[in-house]
Amino acid sequence: MVGGFTGQILNVDLSTGKHKVEALDFQLARKYLGGRGYAAYLLYRNGAHVEPFSPESVIVLSTGPLTGLPGTGSKFVMVTRSPQTGLFLDSYSGGHMSAEIKYAGYDHIVIGGRCDRPSYLWIDDGRIEIRSAAHLWGKSSYDTETTIKKELGDPAVRVMSIGPGGENGVLYACVSTDYYHQAGRGGMGAVMGSKNLKAIAIRGSQGVKVADGQALLNLMRNEMEEAFEQSEFGANRIRYGTTYTTVSTPVLGIMPTRNFQSGVPENIEGLNCFTMREKLVVKDKACFGCQIPCLKYSVVTYGDGAGTKLVGPEYETIALLGSNVGVYDIGLVAKANLLCDLNGLDTISTGNTIGFAMECYEKGLLTKEDTGGLELKFGDHNMVFTLIDKIAHRDGIGDLLADGVMRAAEKIGKNSSNYAVHVKGMEIPAYDPRGAYAMGLAYATASRGGCHRRAKPVEVPRLSADQYSQFGSRGNATLVKRLQDFREVVHSALVCDPALRFGFEATLGTMSRLFKYTTGWDMSEDELRTLADRVDTLIRVFNVREGFDRKDDRLPARFLKDPLPSGPAKGKVVDAESMETMLTEYYTLRGWDDRGVPTRDTLHRLGLDEIAGDIA
Amino acid sequence: MTCSLTHSKTVVNPRMARIHISSDALEAMDSPAVCQQCEDHPCMDACPTGAMVIDEQLGIVVVHPEDCTGCRACEAVCPYAAIFFDPEKDTALKCDLCGGTPECVKTCRLHALTFPTAKEAVIAAGTGGAEDCGNGEDCGCGDSGEEGGDDR
């Protein structure tokens, strides 16, 4: 047995109620590690053109060789074909569930089929049971988690669940775990809902072997600790978590404001990390195994948000449910966040979609007739609360918005697509690429659509102007690829990449040593770079197989046509020439052809010959 | 994690740890439990098989697993709920201070866990801070697996 892995894959067929344990293939594990990499292989194997809401679709729930072990915070990933985009979808969450999956004895859990009635899956080490969720259907994610813990008689059981949003097929419904953690993006909750799968509960009591425990503890206690002490970001990461970004993006003029009509919030003092720390935060919390408690447990004691308790809001949520909808009170953002969590909706897509609806209303593209009498005005926090509930239940105007901005714009027509800010159907998060063109390339090439979690080159081009161009193409393809490749490795490991980057300033060298001490494998930085390329290219082939290529690697009209009205990037759009140059350079670096399709030579170099025929 | 790894040398398993944190995740309340090394050792007194004995060097109670029958008598009388059971062998687990230098303390980078000298402990006790992990204020080390940046 290789350390770090449990050596088992659990396959569950919800249609028949049967399960089967399959051995992990260690040759494949060396090729793809775990998490995103190995799960991509398993999803690819499930075939092309699988309808996301059909019983044939599978959800691959994955951990990696570093998950649940000393080093840094653990995460899990859920992988499927997204109902929102039709692309490969990987959605991650922290908390404690990830470690529990490992301790239950599984590296991956592959869930297919469909339950014939509302159900939940109970995995207690080797005992697998599908139980009725009739009494849970319609309940919030919090109530579901609490009820399951009670009926299983153990508060330490880990639960992931969907809310009404997932039940009702909202295309950006999320999966919640440990109450406050969400695998947010791309509609994973809706796929669970389509399978009548309300929740998954897991308890594990088994250990995971490591190759050299003392070396692992020493690395964590000494070198990583020293790196943390020297890190520029470490202290603020603990004090403010992701919300520290509210300091940088307004200064760069790239924080989404009124549906990306501006990048300069009107009243950032109402939302920034200092205000939040002072008014809301009562405790710092950490995910399993993490030495950097970046989670902020918040309690709202004033105004219309009073009574709200949650971990968060995170930066993305503050931007999309704050400045993007014209709300400038952190307590109200926290409440909107809580409503999304209870209903099982992704806060990013929800905030982006509500901003879109408000702009359409402002421009007369949506009227009171369409909205059932509601006035969708920027800054009206009660309207935000109302719309969240309507979206989750597909009630009235909520039914239109539950499909996200791309589909809503198709239905509204009248040029409303000019205000739909998405890439390939996934709503854009909280960094406007007009102030950092490299971010435009990151959005265009992220394998799951409009996503900031594969590469986020918003400040580097400005700070290293000799190598990269903030408003141009120079060097940006190299930068984006390097950032993506680091995450390919970390997301296959599977641990928290912000903790590694912003806490320990970790590099592939650090990763190489973590793998050595856990698995015993000597994986050089070169081997890890090739692995990153392999995983990225395999996922690209998956997406090409579904019909995506260069024609889809596009930014929304807003970033190409509407100049930013103020701030340091005033007057800027992402010009077509820069975009095309960056894309061509990026494909070349990846070994993909001019259409963005991996070449036969590249597939051969990466050991992917067997799938070359799928995109011929 | 550290506790199970250092005792087993090769296996990480929080269920094998001698320190646990129970949590109310919804309210963000964490309650760590670890042996306080009571001088009057009720656990040892309750043990019907003599599986608990005083370690002569450290002067604390340690478990001889080969004599433990898993009867839970020690667990029932422990005032700190700090006796746990090996999930496979069903024998009692309690903190043995790692022979004098607790490994968990070395791992806790926020210093919510401390191992003061007798003198330091007396001083700290005056300010209520001797067992700082008691409120779990900063304790997010995941050391027990019992406790409750995501994708957004």
Strand order of the largest sheet of chain B: 2-3
Low-confidence stretches of chain B: 128-149
Which pair of protein chains has the largest interface, and what are the residue counts?
A-B, 71 and 40 residues
Q: What percent strand of chain B?
A: 15-25%
| Helix fraction of chain A by DSSP (H/I, runs of at least 4) | 40-55%
Helices and strands of chain B, in N-to-C order? HEEEHEEHEEHH
What is the overall pLDDT average of chain A?
A: 96
Describe the protein in words.
- The complex is a heterodimer of chains A (616) and B (152).
- With 616 residues, chain A is α+β, with helices and mostly antiparallel strands.
- Chain A has three domains: 8-203, 4-Layer Sandwich (Aldehyde Ferredoxin Oxidoreductase,  A, domain 1); 234-407, Aldehyde Ferredoxin Oxidoreductase Protein, subunit A, domain 2 (Orthogonal Bundle); 433-503 and 524-615, Aldehyde Ferredoxin Oxidoreductase Protein, subunit A, domain 3, CATH 1.10.599.10.
- Helices cover 41% and strands 13% of the residues of chain A.
- Chain A has a six-stranded mixed beta sheet with strand order 2-1-6-3-4-5, sandwiched between helices.
- In chain A, a hairpin with a 6-residue loop joins strand 4 (76-81) and strand 5.
- In chain A, helix 18 packs across helix 20 and helix 20 packs across helix 25 (576-590).
- Chain B is built from five helices and seven strands; from the N terminus they run H-E-E-E-H-E-E-H-E-E-H-H.
- Chain B has 152 residues and is of the alpha+beta class.
- Chain B has a domain at 2-99: Alpha-Beta Plaits (2-Layer Sandwich).
- In chain B, 42% of the residues are buried.
- The model of chain B is unreliable at 128-149 (pLDDT under 50).
- The chains are: A alpha+beta (616), B alpha+beta (152).
- Chains A and B meet through strand 5, helix 3, strand 11, strand 13 and helix 7 of A and helix 1, strand 1, strand 2 and helix 4 of B.
